[in-house]
Specification:
5 copies of one chain form a homopentamer. Chain A is globular, with a radius of gyration of 12 Å. The first copy, chain A, has helices spanning 54-60, 81-84, and strands at residues 2-10, 14-15, 24-28, 34-38, 48-53, 70-75. Chain A has 85 residues and is mostly beta strands. A 5-stranded antiparallel β-sheet of chain A has the order 4-3-1-5-6. Chain A is built from 2 helices and 6 strands; from the N terminus they run βββββαβα. Chain A has a single domain, classed as OB fold (Dihydrolipoamide Acetyltransferase, E2P), CATH 2.40.50. Chains in contact: A-B, A-C, B-D, C-E, D-E. The A-B interface holds A 10-16, 18-19, 24, 26, 32, 34-38, 53-55, 57-58, 65-70 and B 1-3, 30, 40-41, 50, 52-57, 59-60, 71-78, 84-85.
């Protein structure tokens, strides 16, 4: 699993049916690389989160039919820039 | 999931049966690296899209038997070069 | 499988149900890059471990429903900085 | 999916049973990095191909029991060094 | 699939049950990066091997319940430093 910081929400009006209507978040890793994660737990911009990838991402989304490959799994209680790198 | 820009269509006359006849797009990431994604929703060159990888890519293609490992999941409403990097 | 050193525990009070209550560890590779692994076997900070990724990570967690993508699979008997790089 | 150029055949007399007797090709990406792909469609050295990875690779091999993680999915009609990078 | 050279055996007395008792090998890629692979076919140190990743790794281990994500699939007949890079 990986540690990301939530950057912003991402809106895709034209969207694959199976991606569902769950919110998508743009997240960044410690190098500033961006990815997109499905968010079933309600993380806010600036939160540090643990993300779940691979087939586990679909289970973590609450339904294995949801076609995500990256899902937010938890909000980290204590994390800051210094822990990151 | 990752954010790519659609570059062009990709034609492969000699093609694996299970890859189906769905269109393939060459897509690039923010560093200009190229990958190939199956496109079930009709993205155009220049569109910024969210792609779904892994086993979820097959479900997103509309049929788990389709042998894609990267499928376009949605067209992003608002994105530009500045958001990318 | 990959070789990591355990850095610390990671606490996520707000956590996806299927991630279970098993402990999470922050682990680092030989370049100092950080990832997060589920730990079903009780590794301690400083231990060198072999991690299992992908769908096998869920089986290794003791239950395929557990939504981990990285699980500690074994503690290495003999390993040190010199073997690492 | 990724774009590779076929470099050569690869012979492994001592081979895992489930890898089957299908030909293996050494392929290179645009940076010259090498990987090995199963070839069910008969690509020749120098051909530019689209490869299918992940669990889809096994389906693309014609039998999900075949233990490949990279399978050639199609030969690209028009591609050259300039398109690559 | 990827090409690695076998470096050494790896002993983990405290090991996840499902990782089984099959030997683990430390393997290196052409850049000297290390990974760990399950070895069901008996490769020796110095051998160049083709490794199978992802879910196919478990099938290649002889039992899908074995929690490996990298398994040696074949020993390459002819390979040397010059072919590698």
């Amino acid at each position: 699993m990986q540690i990301f910081r939530v950057v912003s929400e991402l809106v895709t009006t034209k969207r694959n049916f199976w991606l569902s209507a769950k919110p998508l978040r743009v997240v960044e890793d410690c190098f500033g690389n961006l990815e997109v994660a499905l968010d079933p737990i309600g993380a806010k911009s600036g939160d540090f989160v643990v993300t779940i990838g691979l087939s586990a991402a679909r289970v973590a989304a609450g339904n294995p039919k949801i076609t995500t490959d990256l899902t937010i799994g938890g909000i980290i209680d204590h994390w800051d820039e210094d822990s990151w790198r």
